[in-house]
Amino acid sequence: MRKYLKTADSDWFNQRLTGIMYCVVAAFAVLVVRLFYLQIIEGREYRRLSENNSIRLQSVDAPRGLIYDREGRLLVDNRPAFDLNIILKDAKPVDQTLAKLAGYMHMPVEELTPNITRRGSVSSYKPVLLKQDIGRNALAAIEVHKFDLPGIVMMIKPRRHYIYENSAAHLIGYMGEINNEELDCGDYQGCRVGDYIGKFGVERSYENVFRGQRGGRQVEVNVTGQVVRVLKTVMAKPGNNVFLTIDNNLQQATEKLLQGRAGAAIAMDPKTGEILAMVSSPSFDQNMFVSGMSHENWESLVTNPYRPLENKAIQAEYPPASTYKVIVAMAGLEEGVIDSETTFTCPGYLRLGNRVFRCWRRGGHGTVNVVRALAESCDVFFYNVGRELGVDTLARYALGCGLARPTGIGLANEGKGLIPTTDWKLQRFGEPWQGGETLPVAIGQGYDLTTPIQMLVVTAAVANDGLMHRPQLLKKIESAQGEVVERGRTDVSGRLPVSQATLAIVKRGLWEVVNSEGGTARGARLAKIAISGKTGTAQVVGRKEGAEETPEDEVKEHFKPHAWFIAYAPAEDPQIAVTVIVEHGEHGSSAAAPIAREMIRTYLMNKNDPRQVATVKDSDSDG
Amino acid sequence: MFDRRLVQYFDWGLLGLIVLIGSIGMIALFSAVTAGVATPQKMLYTKQLIWFGVGLTGMIAAFLFSYKTLERWAHAIYFICIALLAAVLLFGTFGGGSRRWLILGPVSIQPSEIVKLAVIIVLARYYSKITTTRGLSLRDLIQPVILTLIPFALIVKQPDLGTAMLLLLIVGSMTVFVKIERRSMAYIILSGTIAVPLVWFFLKGYQKRRILTFLDPERDPLGAGYHIIQSKIAIGSGMLTGKGFLKGTQNALAFLPEQHTDFIFSVLAEEWGFAGVLVVLLIFLLLIVWGLKIAHGCRDTFGTILAVGITAMIFWQVFINIGMVMGLMPVVGVPLPFISYGGSSVVTMMISVGVLMGISMRRFMFE
User: Fold this and answer.
1) A8: pLDDT confidence band, cut at 50, 70 and 90?
2) Is A124 annotated as catalytic?
3) Are the C-beta atoms of residues A198 and A210 closer than 8 Å to each other?
4) Which of A247, A571, A616, B289 might form a disulfide with A532, Cβ 3.0–4.6 angstroms?
5) How many CB contacts within 8 angstroms connect chain A with chain B?
6) To the nearest whole angstrom, how far is the Cα of B276 from the nearest Cα of chain A?
7) Which residues of chain A make contact with B249, given a CB cutoff of 8 A?
8) Is residue A37 a contact partner of residue B162, using CB atoms and an 8 Å limit?
């Protein structure tokens, strides 16, 4: 057959265009038939449904994930709360309905109306909140008179319930209404105006874990707004449950120990970085945040001088005081400035040029080596070490220990503290570093600032042969059905910049702090458990270098120094590391160390055999 | 120099149709942005008028230049549009779960609208050079497939499944119009039947769910499914004669979603009833037939295919949009030509009609 290609001419095109024409007409016929069906055949039914805009959506909130401690003890759950809403279009006449409602609830009408007048522009088919979280009595009264109250709808919402009031409030955090910036930022998918989201603590950090997926129902309502038929339902998907690393027993015990004082106490498993307890005092009741807090309550929280809303364990920055000597000792030993035998003589002060730097013990410590200097917290010894090291070398070691940056615990607003260097001072003040400034820095005063969690990480790393862990709060995440979704990971964040030999010397010193004659925390020792630790007393008001310390009885409460204690135990095989700071507690040895001791005892008691616990308790003479 | 016949042959009928549809669109929009809405968005009405003005300029420009110019510039236009689409993915603003808009000074444009026209022009050029009565072979189809898949992929990435599908339908219509070889057609159908289940098998769970919801809005009773129910109530409740101008109740109070853009037909149907929308449908049908008539009257292959492509675009948008709001089609963001609010859509449509007018005016040239 001869192959030929005929160019497409207009006749050929016209033939094809006719075909297309038929297709188009057929398609339009389909549209017309559908229109006829909707508007003529089903028209009456659709008109009826449109009259009252009867098909509506009701949203069903997803239950938020629960919070447990490491042993699976429930800390936070949800309770059903009943919110009273009005749909203005259905509640005709509105005034009369509201008056009746107020009567049944035994409250003045004025208490119910503010939202209505305020939100005049809102679609009158959307429920307007009248009163949230109404009590059972009001609920019963309204349910009985339901048919007398058109347009009044009750919405059940799961609300947060913090089982232990005031407990672990800073760690667990609280929730609040989502604001406009949060809505716009895109981090909160599926949230809308009026939703509550985690604003602080774990509630905030794990917001996307806790939040489930909202469900809803398509319903048909009658003239008074009552649901006649549920057309379709999409089940809400509950959020995932979070198991924290904290031990609720230890947490509760620690809170009791800190009661009435301002400060923080944290415990960690040095081998994993898991936080066992985190207390910041004073605390607050998270349940106050659940249904919107009253203005007075908020004011009193915000203006309280002891800053109850701050998580002091991670946010507050304090001079590390003598606890910092652990780092200075390590730096001195590593740099060869001192060895375990090097001694300095402490007459109670050090003279540098024409300035005098005092040791905390007026009479002096005599001649001490590094172990004794740690045990007795001799300032003069560390003045000498610091002076020989210089501020920049000191800073290098401090940074190597993880100071001056957040530990990465995964809670918002973590403080980072400050470790001064010569460059820093030049930039900050435009002045060069003065040699004399190194001395207070070497005893953790001056510009030095650390958060309690930073010192805990250092303490735990010393206990753990130099291996540093990122503090960890998450044990695991489980789905509502109990399947493990994610497990907390042990995260090594680095290694202390020191040798094992250096560590052994420092550990010896820390052991002597508690367990030797003349150790500053001798009062904190336990009979059966060897605790190692370091006290600290952080000056609050700038003690003038070389100036006489003000006699204690004259010191006003808020000028008293902060009391530190860092510790780990048992000394030979550390299972817990602890940091305690008591604001204005005066001495680490008297205010902070006993708290640390009790925390250690509580934790190890629970962990070990109960019979052994009993013996520990009995034989503890100096408790 | 200037041919008097250009004026003589000016397509007043087409202009009349556009004025008519545009007016209906403005009436519907007025109702959608004012009736019963707590905060009337009168701004949108003014903006739409301005867009019609811009579109009119585009239309005049389009018919003043001979469409032969388009043939010469086809590839340049195409690549500029592709660049705009790529820019959307890089710098576009995010809204409603997808990235569709480019902000240029005071206006935001949606390049996926104008890209449809660019693809029509570039394909019309290609087909006009190779078309024979025997139809296209598979090898002939390689180039059109590539030219389509590039913008298609970029639009899917936004993601805007509706516009992407629309693009395929337009290209498909043009290709079927210039005819595919019988054997090639068989191959295409065969490989399609094999490929679809295969692709489905490799999709992830959420992708499957998204496609299923796209095809069947009932699966999403709180989102698309609810919108369709409300839209059906709005349309159905219009009955024979409608509730009257500005008397719609579904339109009011945001019961209809996007009542001024994708769901504007529901507003028309509620207020003007079966009688009213029948008129609207008839005008659209007339417009499409008019477009085909222009293709018919054109003696130039490029012009004919171009006219068919533009008409196909108008047809598919009308059919999909109206089918969607009546629950016959997936819920996709395809605007109703000349009626839905939206600058990019209006301007693209006006320019397209301008091109049609240009073809119509020059029908004498090849006699």
Assistant:
1) low
2) no
3) yes
4) A571
5) 147
6) 11
7) 50-51, 53
8) no
Measured distance CA(A405)–CA(A391) in Å, rounded:
18
Measure CB to CB from residue A49 to each of B233, B273, B296 and give the nearest one. B233
pLDDT at B92 > cutoff 90: no
DSSP class of residue A126 equals: S
Residue B45 has pLDDT above 60, yes or no: yes
Q: List B residues 28-47 in contact with A (Cβ-Cβ < 8 A).
A: 38-39
Look-up of token digits 């449509």: B349
> What mean pLDDT value characterizes chain B?
87
Measured between CA atoms, how close is B198 to chain A, in angstroms?
30
- Tally: H helices and E strands in chain A: 22, 23
Question: Tens digits of per-residue pLDDT, A266-324?
Answer: 999 999 999 999 999 999 998 888 877 788 888 988 899 899 999 999 999 999 999 99
Contact A316, A264 (CB under 8 A): yes
Residue tagged active-site, from A280, A281, A322, A377? A322
Is the Cα dihedral A20, A22, A23, A25 positive or negative? Answer: positive
Q: Please indicate, yes or no, whether the overall pTM of this predicted structure exceeds 0.90.
A: no
Minimal C-alpha gap between A151 and chain B (Å): 17
d(CA A556, CA B245): 79
Q: Count Cα neighbours of A446 within 13 Å in the Cβ-side half-sphere.
A: 24
**Alpha-carbon distance B249 to A390, whole Å?**
80
Residue in A with minimal Cα distance to B324: A31
Using a CB-CB distance cutoff of 8 angstroms, which residues of chain B are in contact with residue A10? 296, 299, 304
Contacts of A60 in chain B (CB under 8 A): none
Q: Across the strands, what pairs with A157?
A: A81
Residue B221 touches partner A, C-beta closer than 8 Å: yes
Q: Are strands A355-358 and A275-281 parallel, antiparallel or unpaired?
A: unpaired
Q: What is the pLDDT of residues A378-418, one digit of tens each?
A: 999 999 999 999 999 999 999 999 999 999 999 989 999 99
Instruction: Let me know how long chain B is.
Output: 367
Contacts of A43 in chain B (CB under 8 A): 236-240, 274
Strand partners of residue A352:
A355
Please state which of the ranges A254-263, A414-423, B248-257 shows the lowest mean pLDDT.
B248-257
Are the Cβ atoms of B253 and A125 closer than 8 angstroms?
A: yes
Q: What pLDDT does residue B253 have?
A: 47
Interface contact A50-B285, CB threshold 8 A: no
- Report the CATH architecture of A57-93+126-244: Alpha-Beta Complex (3.90)
ipTM score over 0.95, yes or no: no
CB contact under 8 A, B233 and A14: no
Q: Are A358 and A543 in contact (CB under 8 A)?
A: no
For residues A502 and A485, give the distance between their C-alpha atoms in angstroms, rounded to a whole number: 42
Compute CA distances A257 → A254, A329, A595, whole Å.
5, 31, 6
For residue B28, what are the CA distances in angstroms to A279, A371, A604, B267, B340? Answer: 63, 88, 76, 7, 9
Which residue intervals of A223-357 are DSSP H helices? Answer: 248-258, 287-290, 295-303, 325-334
Percent of chain A predicted with pLDDT > 70: 92
| Architecture of the domain defined by A311-559 | 3-Layer(aba) Sandwich (3.40)
